[in-house]
Write a structure and sequence with these properties.
Layout (H helix, E strand, L loop, with lengths): L15 H54 L33
Length: about 100
């Protein structure tokens, strides 16, 4: 029964095939990370290429819509009529526009 109380044996040093396999696994993980990073960047660039024309034309269409709806709908109040016309006080001054030929 002496054998059951013997000290544990020291671990064996890794063989060259074990270290090569570990290096190969690390290399594959690194390459996989690089591929994922490249794909992530490509997706971001694709999204930006699509978003830039939309972001440039959207304000133009909003302005066009605003301009075309202004005579029909008061956009600020939501009423289905235009706001009244503003007449300046100077526009009501009849003496300002006298014709000198009379």
């Amino acid at each position: 029964n002496c054998d059951s109380h013997s000290p544990p044996s020291a671990p064996l040093p890794p063989s060259s095939t074990d270290t090569n396999a570990a290096r190969s696994k690390k290399r594959e993980e690194h390459l996989q990370n690089l591929r994922e990073e490249r794909l992530r960047k490509q997706r971001q660039e694709k999204i930006l290429r699509r978003a830039i024309p939309i972001l440039l034309t959207l304000p133009w269409f909003i302005g066009l819509l605003w301009t075309s709806l202004h005579p029909i709908v008061s956009i600020i109040t939501g009423e289905l009529k235009c706001r009244g016309q503003y007449i300046d006080e100077n526009g009501l001054d009849v003496h300002r526009h006298r014709v000198e030929s009379y």
